[in-house]
Amino acid sequence: MIKRTWSLWKESMRMSLTNIWNSKMRSFLTVLGIVIGVTAIIALITIMQTATTEVTKEFISMGTGRLVVNASGTALKTGLTLADIEEIKAIPNVEGISPTVTTTASARSAYDWTEDVTVDGYNEMYFRRNSELVSRGRALNVLDVEAKNRVVLLDETAQQNLFYGKDPMGEKVFIRGYEFTVVGILTDADSGDVISQAQSDSTDGGRMIIPYSTAMTMTGTRNITSLSVYVADTSLTDQVQAELESVLKAAFNYKDNSYRIINMESLLDTMDTMLSMMYMLLVGIASIALLVGGIGIMNMMLVTVTERTTEIGLRKALGAEPGQIQLQFLIESIILSISGGVIGVILGLAISYVFSIVAGFTFVASGSAVAIGVGFSAAVGIVFGWAPARKASQLNPIDALRSV
Amino acid sequence: MHNEFFRMQGIVKRYQMGDELQTVLHGVDLTVKEGEFLSVLGPSGSGKSTLMNIIGCLDTPTEGEYILRGREIAKQDAKQLAAIRNREIGFVFQSFQLLPRLNALRNVELPLIYAGLGEKERLARAEETLVRVGLKDKLGNRPNQLSGGQQQRVAIARALATNPSILLADEPTGALDQATGKQVLQLFEEINRDGRTIIMITHDLSIAKHANRIVHILDGMLMEGDEQHD
Q1: Number of domains, chain A
Q2: Number of CB pairs, chain A paired with chain B, less than 8 A apart
Q3: Which of B93, B101, B119 minimises the CB distance to A18?
């Protein structure tokens, strides 16, 4: 019985392939709808997934449980005073804060000099939260900040610019005429966070980190315009944010637009919601394409059944059961739609591959996308092939043979 | 040799033609013995094709009893009828009805697929049958590469492939010239000599005469013919 069924399947497949091959142009045009639908689904899913992974990675690298405050202040008061900062530190559930003083300067070592170095002033908290920042040497500590030590950490670019082929550890670097000692090297991964990158016109001169207190002295700044607030218990971030707002409002005399708080987590949430909505929308559109493709297949199958009425009658006269006729036509429509699906998967992956190269993302072929593409197209073949196949199986053999 | 092959009693067939109910067969009685070569002779519109469809289990009678090899045809479902057509009956049509995209071998293989044989056995049997009808060299030819007579031979081979007990031919020489028609009829006679029952439907008396029994059909009624041929 199993052998008999298999033999029939094989035969049906052979017949279907012969028929599809014999009307190549028509078959191609018929599956085009499926190809476009599946291509769209695969490309959209893969591109969305790649982009989401990439963006989420970036957001997470900036750290969650962190509120970024931009306090431009008012005409009377630019930035936050040290007293304001003490007040922020005192907010319950705040683990610590890290003021950010960013400037661009030219720097010089005993060997070389370079322009346009981004100099970021931070404190020890910044390093505590980003433990993998330092590849060699040490991070900043409390004493550096308290004592306004002139110590500096260099990134790879800055190191290469100033100390090409030499060990910079313990060497001197001059920034705006101030003498600093190199205490550590930053990992490549740290290119500053997106926000400070956007604020300082990012340059290729490299990046250096010094204690923020030293940076304030060096730049002559009295107030802090940018700082990160680290939250101890991330489930209470919203409360911290509310308290932070009231402190900032009081600090700037309740003037509008004097400050801005960026919550990484809520930003991530918003982005997630937006992405998943877009995702559903795109898949919805692609599904419509598939639906249209399915109708195309149904139409072609109905035409095929009509064209091959005589053949169906003959097969019945030769002993084909209705179920066997139905199977043959169903297989034909499934082969059509799956071949469309496979072409679609290949095209879709190719498109997303090109996209990720152009966008500089890491290309990840999504297995689920491939499964969805092939599965969907097979389902389309079954659903839209069912009615024509049923029609074929129900044909009266006499009418079918008479139509000659 | 002279067992009853099938028996028809009071077969009536009516068709709904628009508003009218048309009676095509008016109570046909016909008994055929195993090994007979029977011609059903009648002009077009006499109901001979309808009769053939009923004999071939392609159609069921409105009234009457049809028993084929002890089986009451009216009581079989679609699946059982398909099996009967496959095992018991070999059809030969006027217009051959070969599938144009398949070669001779694959055409003859068709009924064997529905008989559920494995591919190796199917092809062996198809080849054997084609050799028997004299088409040893034409196995790989498609219908459009064959002459009319050769095409009809392929069709006959296809009808014989499942080794059915009866060959049912509807105007088998209708599309052939006289010489080729004659060869086909000779082939029928040979097949009949091997003991297979043949029923041939035709409007041509000279063709009908090749059979050893002739029944006339006219306006849906059957009469035993007086021409006997040996």
Answers
A1: 2
A2: 67
A3: B101
One domain for residues A242 and A319: no
Taking CB atoms and an 8 Å limit, are B97 and A404 in contact across chains?
A: yes
Per-residue pLDDT of B145-201, as tens digits, reads: 999 899 999 999 999 999 999 999 998 988 888 888 898 999 999 999 988 999 999
**C-alpha to C-alpha distance for A20 and A24, rounded to whole angstroms:** 6
Of B79, B95, B102, the CB nearest to A404: B95
**Hey, what domains does chain B have and what are their CATH numbers?**
4-224 (3.40.50.300)
In a domain, A395, yes or no: yes
Residue in this structure with the two tokens 């293989």, named with its chain if needed:
B109
pLDDT of residue A256: 77
Nearest to residue B130, comparing CAs of B113, B116, B151? B151
Closest CA of chain B from A11, distance in Å: 8
Decide if A66 is inside a domain.
Answer: no
Does A109 map to a domain? Answer: yes
Which candidate in B105, B114, B117, B154 is best for mutational testing of the A interface (most A CBs within 10 A)? Answer: B114
The verdict on A253 and A107 lying in the same domain is yes
Q: Residue A322: its chain B contacts at CB < 8 A?
A: 78-79, 82
**Co-location of A148 and A249 in the same domain:** yes
Judge if A134 and A168 occupy the same domain.
yes
- 0.90 exceeded by pTM: no
Residue A35: CB partners within 8 Å, gap ≥ 6? A293, A340, A343, A344, A347
| Cross-chain residue pair B58–A8, CB shorter than 8 Å | no
* A319/B contact by beta carbon, under 8 A: yes
Mean pLDDT of all residues in A35-58: 83
Chain B CB contacts of A399 under 8 Å are: none
Find the domain containing A32 and state its range.
2-58+269-402
Nearest Cα to A180, choosing from A152, A138, A221?
A: A152
**Domain end marker among A226, A258, A290:** A258
Give the closest-approach CA distance of A330 to chain B in angstroms: 17
A220 Cβ under 8 Å from any chain B Cβ: no
Instruction: Yes or no: say if A173 and A152 are a contact pair by the CB < 8 Å rule.
Output: yes
Which residues in chain A have Cβ-Cβ distances shorter than 8 Å to B102? 18
**pLDDT value of residue B226:** 57
Q: Is the pLDDT assigned to residue A131 strictly greater than 90?
A: no
In terms of domains, do A161 and A82 share one? Answer: yes
Helix residue ranges, H only, A191-318: 194-199, 212-219, 237-251, 264-307, 309-317
Q: How far is CA B100 from CA A262, B46, B85, B106, in A?
A: 74, 31, 22, 10
